[in-house]
């Protein structure tokens, strides 16, 4: 059984790592805001050149007036979270400048400036382009986020999905009518599940290890990937401690996780071992499922 102090510390670290995903999401939204606002800085610099051109003196400031960004900036949820996470890109002004300079020479940006339409949906199109084709492909941006977030490589896909969903879901020009993307649809319930799964798995680590060892006697321990062992322990924990989750849902979830986080052969290996352990649990009549958990397929 895990030491109580270590367990508390580890659980706190787990929940912090989840909050870091949301913080990463907010930093990315803020970066998109900064890029649009750099339009004004760029215009000022051009106007103050020694020999400004007509275009320098009359720049197209359409991006500065982007409706999606302006609605986002006035969203009270966004304002509160920027303050909470102390988000400020001013410490890295060259990054924002580099992104804007890469953007302003693209045909897509020039077409955006030439189009007189500036409704909310049209304004989201250029922001999606900036996010997907400029920001996410920038080595400088990737480096900046890697420096800020140790789990960037693992969490970036979740963050990307959250940003994309935010752009899609902002459908009103009323800043108070739109909602940022939550980390989950019901974090009260999902957060409790995450904590319980984590705690129960650690508390019963030796028991679950013994169950796995009993079914991997023909395998040398060093040949079993550590991630495979962790995923199997979590699966066993879910099978035994969450009666409302159907068996097949649990098995399929951890097989999917193995595809993303373990070796190419892990999927079939974990499936085989969990199938044997399932048989043991059923024979010993310790697998108790209720309600939705009784669903077999």
Distance between the termini: 34 Å
State the share of residues found in helices, binned by percent: 55-70%
Uncertain segments:
none
Shape: elongated
Beta content: under 5%
The helix tally amounts to 14
User: N-to-C SSE series?
Assistant: HHHHHHHHHHHHHH
Radius of gyration: 25 Å
Structural class: mainly alpha
Output mean pLDDT: 92
How would the blueprint of this fold be written?
Blueprint: H1 4-47, H2 54-57, H3 67-73, H4 76-84, H5 93-104, H6 107-114, H7 120-135, H8 139-148, H9 152-169, H10 187-203, H11 205-214, H12 226-241, H13 247-261, H14 266-283
Helix pairs in contact: 1-5, 1-9, 1-10, 10-12, 11-12, 12-13, 12-14, 13-14
Tell me what the structure shows.
By secondary structure, this protein is mainly alpha-helical. Helices cover 69% and strands 0% of the residues. The chain folds into two domains: 20-177, no CATH class; 204-294, Orthogonal Bundle (N-utilizing Substance Protein B Homolog, Chain A). The chain has 14 helices and no strands. 20% of the residues are buried. The mean pLDDT is 92.
Give the structure's gist in a few sentences.
With 297 residues, this protein is mostly helical. It is built from 14 helices and no strands.
Descriptive tags:
single chain, 297 residues, mainly alpha, N-utilizing Substance Protein B Homolog, Chain A, 2 domains, 14 helices, 69% helix
């Amino acid at each position: 059984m895990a030491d109580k102090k270590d367990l508390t510390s580890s659980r706190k670290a787990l929940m912090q790592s989840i909050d870091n995903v949301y913080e990463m999401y907010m930093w990315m939204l803020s970066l998109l805001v900064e890029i649009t606002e750099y339009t004004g800085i760029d215009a000022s610099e051009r106007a103050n050149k020694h020999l400004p051109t007509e275009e320098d003196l009359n720049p197209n400031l359409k991006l500065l007036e982007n409706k999606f960004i302006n609605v986002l900036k006035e969203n009270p949820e966004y304002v509160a979270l920027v303050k909470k996470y102390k988000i400020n890109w001013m410490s890295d002004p060259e990054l924002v400048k580099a992104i804007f300079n890469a953007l302003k020479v693209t045909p897509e940006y020039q077409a955006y400036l030439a189009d007189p339409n500036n409704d909310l949906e049209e304004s989201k199109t250029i922001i999606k382009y900036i996010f997907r084709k400029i920001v996410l492909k920038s080595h400088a941006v990737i480096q900046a986020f890697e420096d800020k977030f140790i789990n960037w490589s693992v969490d970036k896909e979740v963050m990307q999905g959250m940003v994309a969903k935010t752009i899609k879901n902002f459908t009103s020009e009323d800043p108070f009518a739109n909602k940022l993307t939550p980390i989950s649809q019901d974090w009260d319930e999902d957060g409790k599940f995450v904590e319980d799964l984590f705690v129960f798995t650690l508390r019963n680590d030796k028991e679950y290890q013994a169950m796995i060892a009993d079914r991997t006697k023909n395998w040398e321990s060093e040949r079993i990937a550590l991630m495979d062992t962790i995923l199997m322990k979590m699966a066993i924990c879910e099978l035994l401690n969450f009666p409302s989750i159907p068996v097949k849902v649990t098995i399929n979830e951890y097989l999917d996780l193995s595809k993303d986080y373990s070796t190419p052969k892990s999927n079939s290996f974990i499936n085989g071992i969990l199938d044997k352990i399932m048989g043991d649990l059923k024979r010993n009549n310790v697998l108790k499922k209720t309600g939705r958990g009784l669903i077999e397929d």
